[in-house]
């Protein structure tokens, strides 16, 4: 998150000055979002993992309601996707992207449902109802927002959680075939999506149109070399790469901090993945294991998709880089996900034993005194 704050400041200054006459417009907003997120993150990390389980259905309900509100006058579109809520009237400060919170809701709710049905998951009907049925409904709402990138992440997250609980391969395979057919249909019947696929298949085509951002991202990575051109010295952020502080922030990292800085970002996400799956293996409850696995799958998978897009190894999907890209809703959702992961870590047997030992050592000892004539001796 510290690296994200630094790169949002560096990548957004030209665009912020041009659009808002304030080079620090985006970094100031990002600082506000990050402060709020960290405060709530600390609070939620102190909750017991059992509290998350009790709030699972409420989290799903709120996520569905928020996503549905995007189809009311409160919702508005960005880049053809109607996936935002404007909660501040004419002000753009308080805008919310409900689909980001739908990812966390799916993890917590899905873990609660699958943990409850743990002994019945060998039967297909107990896998399909209610987990797959409700999850597909939530994914369908996101698809109606025309946010294909988030829908793909939600679908992959659902499949990953089914794999973690040992669901039958025929169920997972059928769902993969269904989602693949649906994705293909949405691409074929949507000209803008089809253009992205064709641009991905021919990376040199239309360099000022559909391939403008990917080509400029590669220019940035190539210019950076081993050690980069220096922090703040990017050339691509000066109008060529309009999404420099959001989806393509990794290209600015590669340009300014070089291959070494890019590899450091990769190392941070690898460390996060290792720590997350380690917690998932050691959690004392099945629910905690699923929450930890779901959060880790979500964050690492989203990071991988963003990295592949910037490297032109995948078509543009509009997926931000967790903790690094600018975005208030994504930052808050990501921090809350880490808070849930920390709560799972605190529920490990070793962590519980350490907490109990620490509590015993912190208990004040009782002092006894004997009263003798003329003085008090401890």
Automatic annotation (TrEMBL):
Q: What's its catalytic activity?
A: [GlcNAc-(1->4)-Mur2Ac(oyl-L-Ala-gamma-D-Glu-L-Lys-D-Ala-D-Ala)](n)-di-trans,octa-cis-undecaprenyl diphosphate + beta-D-GlcNAc-(1->4)-Mur2Ac(oyl-L-Ala-gamma-D-Glu-L-Lys-D-Ala-D-Ala)-di-trans,octa-cis-undecaprenyl diphosphate = [GlcNAc-(1->4)-Mur2Ac(oyl-L-Ala-gamma-D-Glu-L-Lys-D-Ala-D-Ala)](n+1)-di-trans,octa-cis-undecaprenyl diphosphate + di-trans,octa-cis-undecaprenyl diphosphate + H(+)
Residue stretches spanning the membrane: 26-44, 56-76, 96-115, 127-144, 150-166, 171-189, 248-274, 286-311, 323-345
Pathway assigned in UniProt: Cell wall biogenesis; peptidoglycan biosynthesis
GO annotation, cellular component aspect: cell division site; plasma membrane
- Any Pfam family from its record, for instance, is FTSW_RODA_SPOVE
Which biological process terms from the Gene Ontology are attached to this UniProt entry? cell division; cell wall organization; peptidoglycan biosynthetic process; regulation of cell shape
What are the alphabetically sorted keywords of the record?
Answer: Cell cycle, Cell division, Cell membrane, Cell shape, Cell wall biogenesis/degradation, Glycosyltransferase, Membrane, Peptidoglycan synthesis, Transferase, Transmembrane, Transmembrane helix
Q: What's the main place this protein lives?
A: membrane
Q: Does the keyword section mention Transmembrane helix?
A: yes
Instruction: Please state the Enzyme Commission number of this protein.
Output: 2.4.99.28
Question: What InterPro entries does UniProt report for this protein, alphabetically?
Answer: FtsW (IPR013437), FtsW/RodA (IPR001182)
Molecular function (GO) terms for this protein are:
lipid-linked peptidoglycan transporter activity; peptidoglycan glycosyltransferase activity
Keyword Cell division (UniProt):
yes
Where located? Cell membrane
Membrane topology type: Multi-pass membrane protein
Q: Which family does it belong to?
A: Belongs to the SEDS family. FtsW subfamily.
Q: What does the function comment of this entry state? A: Peptidoglycan polymerase that is essential for cell division.
Quote the NCBIfam families the UniProt record gives.
ftsW
Name recorded for this polypeptide: Probable peptidoglycan glycosyltransferase FtsW
The protein's organism comes out as Propioniciclava flava
Which gene is annotated as encoding this protein in its UniProt record?
ftsW
């Amino acid at each position: 998150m510290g690296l994200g704050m630094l790169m949002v400041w560096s990548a957004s200054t030209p665009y912020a000055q041009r659009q808002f006459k304030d080079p620090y417009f985006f970094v100031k907003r990002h600082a506000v979002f990050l402060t709020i997120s960290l405060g709530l993150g600390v609070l939620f990390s102190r909750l017991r993992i059992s509290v998350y389980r009790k709030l699972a259905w409420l989290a799903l309900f709120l996520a569905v309601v928020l996503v549905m509100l995007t189809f009311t006058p409160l919702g508005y579109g960005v880049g053809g996707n109607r996936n935002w809520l404007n909660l501040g009237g004419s002000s753009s400060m308080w805008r919310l992207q409900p689909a980001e919170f739908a990812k966390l809701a799916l993890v917590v709710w899905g873990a609660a449902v699958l943990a409850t049905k743990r002994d019945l998951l060998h039967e297909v009907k107990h896998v399909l109802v209610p987990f797959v049925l409700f999850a597909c409904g939530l994914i369908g709402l996101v698809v109606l927002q025309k946010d294909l990138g988030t829908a793909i992440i939600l679908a992959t997250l659902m499949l990953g959680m089914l794999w973690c609980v040992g669901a039958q391969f025929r169920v997972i395979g059928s769902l993969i075939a269904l989602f693949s057919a649906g994705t293909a249909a949405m691409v074929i019947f949507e000209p803008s999506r089809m253009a992205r696929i064709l641009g991905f298949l021919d990376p040199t085509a239309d360099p000022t149109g559909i391939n403008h951002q990917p080509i400029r991202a590669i220019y940035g990575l190539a210019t950076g070399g081993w050690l980069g051109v220096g922090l703040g010295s990017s050339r691509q952020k000066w109008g060529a790469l309009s999404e420099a502080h959001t989806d393509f922030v990794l290209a600015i990292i590669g340009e300014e901090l070089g291959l070494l800085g890019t590899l450091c970002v990769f190392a941070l996400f690898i460390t996060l993945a290792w720590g997350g799956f380690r917690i998932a293996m050691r959690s004392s409850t099945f629910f905690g294991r699923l929450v930890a696995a779901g959060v880790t799958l979500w964050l690492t998978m989203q990071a991988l998709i963003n990295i592949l897009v910037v490297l032109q190894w995948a078509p543009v999907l509009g997926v931000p880089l967790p903790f690094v890209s600018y975005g208030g809703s994504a930052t808050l959702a990501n921090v809350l996900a880490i808070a849930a992961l920390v709560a799972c870590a605190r529920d490990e047997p070793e962590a519980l034993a350490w907490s109990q030992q620490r509590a015993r050592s912190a208990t004040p000892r009782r002092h006894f005194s004997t009263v003798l004539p003329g003085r008090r001796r401890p």
